[in-house]
Specification:
- This protein is mostly helical and 274 residues long.
- The protein folds into two domains: 55 residues, no CATH class; 174 residues, MetI-like fold.
- The chain contains eleven helices and two strands.
- Strands 1-2 form a two-stranded antiparallel ribbon.
- Helix 3 crosses helix 10, helix 6 crosses helix 8 and helix 7 runs antiparallel to helix 8.
- The radius of gyration is 24 Å and the shape is globular.
């Protein structure tokens, strides 16, 4: 009986490992295609397949008209939305986890509503709000920024809340027992522990903001972001420089993740030293 149980467990482990590898390969295929296409010179605009190898897409990144302005605008909106959502979301997370106040349970529920709502519903709701506020004829950069902060806020709150909920408060109590005030305790004990969660929330916010199309399209007016440029260009042909941008974003994200992982391992080694 024990032998059969071990056999079943081993088969289950092998199947799990195989499925995990297949899922990983499935997730990596789009990335490989994007990287390969960034070096592609297609035989014609109407054929989206690999033709010949070229560096022209990298050296002529701004060759397609409107690509670089749209890219810079997306980066600008993404950074500002990330900053606003991260600051506000972190403060909200601390309030929800560390404090008790009237309406706390209702606020916890409301935080999840933007995440559960379809983007078209949220985008149209924000559009109605801007029109009611008299901004119907002034849609543009600032309305897009406000919209991005609002839908990124929930993701930041949930991410930082999860980090705070898993923290050991005894370290903070020990710091205050050693006569550290609340300010020094926060910056020397609490903030280093919660920072990985804040960094993850910020990266997620930037990714969501940079990649968003539906909410942006409904509230952008005449402003064009990078996803809107790609959508418009796809009606005619997709410039290969779009794949260069995708490759660059992937490399930047990979470097940030690797840097954070190396820093985490270095910190663990330092703590492990006698």
């Amino acid at each position: 009986m024990i032998g059969w149980r071990r056999l079943v467990e081993r088969i289950g482990e092998r199947i799990t490992a195989i499925v995990g590898v297949l899922v990983l390969v499935y997730m990596c295929i789009p990335v490989v295609v994007v990287v390969a296409m960034s070096f592609n010179a297609p035989p014609s605009r109407n054929v989206y397949r690999f033709g010949t190898f070229t560096w022209d897409n990298w050296t002529g990144l701004c060759a397609p008209e409107g690509l670089c302005p749209a890219l810079l605008r997306s980066v600008e909106i993404g950074l500002l939305a990330t900053l606003g959502a991260t600051v506000l979301g972190t403060l909200m997370a601390f309030a929800l986890v560390r404090h008790r106040f009237a309406g706390r349970a209702a606020l916890n529920l409301l935080v999840f509503l933007p995440m559960a709502s379809p983007e078209v519903v949220m985008g149209s709701s924000l559009l109605a709000l801007f029109v009611a506020a008299g901004l119907g004829g002034k849609l543009g950069f600032w309305t897009v920024l406000i919209a991005h902060i609002m839908f990124c806020l929930s993701f930041v709150v949930v991410t930082v809340k999860a980090r705070l909920a898993g923290m050991d408060t005894r370290l903070e109590e020990a710091a205050m027992d050693l006569y550290a005030d609340r300010w020094r305790t926060f910056w020397l004990v609490t903030f280093p522990q919660v920072f990985p969660g804040i960094l993850g929330a910020a990266l997620l916010s930037f990714s969501l903001s940079f990649d968003d199309f539906i909410i942006t399209n409904l509230n952008a007016g005449t402003t064009t972001t990078f996803p809107m440029f790609v959508w418009g260009a796809a009606k005619r042909w997709v410039p290969m420089q779009v794949n260069v941008v995708g490759t660059l974003m992937f490399l930047v994200s990979l470097l940030i993740v690797l840097g954070a992982e190396l820093d985490r391992r270095r910190s663990e080694r330092l703590r492990a030293r006698p």
